[in-house]
Amino acid sequence: MKNKPLDFQSATAEHVLETYKKGQKRVLVADEAGLGKTTVASEVVRRVKGELSKEVLDDDGMYCVVYVCCNLQIAQQNIDTLSDDGEKVDLSQSRLSMQHFVYYRKKVELKASGKDTLVLSLTPATSFQMTWGTGSVSERALIYACLSLLPAFNSQEKQNRLSDLLVGWAPKAWKWLSVHYYNEVRKPELIEYRETIVAAMTSKLSRMYSADETYMQRLLHLCDSRQDAQWQNDIYYFTIKLRKIFAEISLEILK
Fold this sequence. Notes:
Shape: elongated
Helix content: 55-70%
Radius of gyration: 21 Å
């Protein structure tokens, strides 16, 4: 924690902690601008970790803080205040549909450096608004990399067809981003992540997409279909569904 709290900030954090211990899981701290609400939050983070560690630590001893901020610029300013272990916000990976990967990757990085506090920053505009669109090229590249882990895409031909389905309108950026995420999810140290994401995708894609097709069957059908105007329309709507599936996976992993 970068800022040492003043007495009134420590008192506010103490009140929040005592309220939490009594069973109230939601607390609103409302104060004037400039009086140090972020410093209060950082003190709460520190004390919850120190005094309630058995309740808040993951099975592997990691402590995860999800910081929801109005925009990424402010998040970048404040994330270091929340924890000494916090990292600068990666603008390209702030989407909710990508947090399953960010969570596991950062856990590995922190454990390697002997740290145990993971701070993830999300914003309403980039993280929670699942608009009717196919998302950023980074989102789709990560989805491609994850789906390519499934047995159905163990051949180069199948992976190429999957790539054609998700490339969207960014072929130049897709070339290196798809390769980047493909290699990232296969790193040896991310074996726990691969096991988790494959199990989650298998479960989600087994759900019914329509009356006579599961999501997986629909995905394979689109991969094998002729790439005409109707195909472009179909993959547009299916990609939206895929983004929502991966957002669900992120929420389940972040608890």
